[in-house]
Amino acid sequence: MAAKALSFDVGDFVVYPKHGVGRVIELQRSEIAGMTLELYVLRFEKERMTLRVPTNKAESVGMRKLSSDKTMREAMDTLKGKPKVKRTMWSRRAQEYEAKINSGDLVSIAEVVRDLFRADDQPEQSYSERQIFEGATSRLARELAAMEELDEPKAQEKILDILRAAAAIYNKDKVPA
Predict the structure, then answer these.
(1) Which domains does the chain possess?
(2) Each residue's pLDDT tens digit, 99-143
(3) Cβ-Cβ contacts under 8 Å for 111 (sequence gap 6 or more)
(4) What is the CB neighbour count within 10 angstroms for residue 38?
(5) DSSP assignment string, 115-176
(6) 40-72 pLDDT tens trace
(7) Model confidence, pTM
């Protein structure tokens, strides 16, 4: 068997692409179908979920350590950018947004948050837009919270502050003189 490229210790925060930020709570050995497997036991508090990931599959499923400071800065800078409004059908955009969120890539998640954000003076979102926006924001906020040792609501407020400031800049172009 090849040497493990990724290794996580008990107590480490990790990002599992489909579920977001979790914590390694245990390293476990289990015998399954006559084979002994080493497993990472991950706990996702927000979802009240425990997940077991074979150590030799961690890399192939995209499990990773928390992002670097550089990546987090890049994600925060993405939030400050001008939202990209696509004119494709909502169902196709929703699929693209979900794929970006589930990729686990912080900058892609930030793009979804930026593109779906609506300032108070903008038209309201549809229910499904709001659901995707809240999911992406929560995913970004949990990683920010874990990195900066904040609670999730504070991290979410920090993200919304950046978005509001950016919206104030980009939306003043649209105000009739």
Answers:
(1) 10-63 (2.40.10.170), 67-171 (1.20.58.1290)
(2) 999 988 999 999 999 999 988 878 888 999 999 999 999 999 999
(3) 78, 84, 100
(4) 13
(5) HH---TTSPPPPHHHHHHHHHHHHHHHHHHHHHHT--HHHHHHHHHHHHHHHHHHHHGGGS-
(6) 999 998 888 999 999 998 888 889 999 999 999
(7) 0.83
